[in-house]
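[Automated response] Your request has been received and processed.

Submitted sequence:
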Amino acid sequence: MQDFEIVFNQYLEKRGLKLTKARRYVLETVFELHEHFSAQDLYEKIKSKISGISLATVYRTLPLLVEAGLVQYSIRKEGKESYEHIFGHPKHIHWLCHKCGTLIETDLKEIYPIIMRYAKELEFEPDDISLNIRGLCWKCKLDDKENHLHEK
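Generated structure:
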């Protein structure tokens, strides 16, 4: 059994739930993906391997994976909520270009101490930290600048 499977199984047992065959397929497929994914993307990937799992099963399993600390809601991109598996991965910042959709990830370690200092001052205990920043990437910013020059 993989570590992520052990964690999920323990989480389910605490909630009085079982690691069904369908939940196992969802879990395994999530950890085969190494990019952000929507519920629909995940369903399509599973459906290409096996039949008999519904989109509803994927939608019901994702919150369990989030609550178990294996997956996190990542960022809303192209009108869809996306997720990523985080078990064994460092926390990071998502930089999303609202023009071209480019998504860049950078480590959170440099600003984490600042966040925790503020949390302490506020007497707040964070359970989870996610940071998403939207704006223009350097390419789109450059394109906008060049378009303005040509308009003049």
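Summary generated for your ticket: The helical segments are 3-14, 21-32, 39-49, 55-67, 112-121, 138-151. The mean pLDDT is 87.
If you did not submit this request, please reply to this message.
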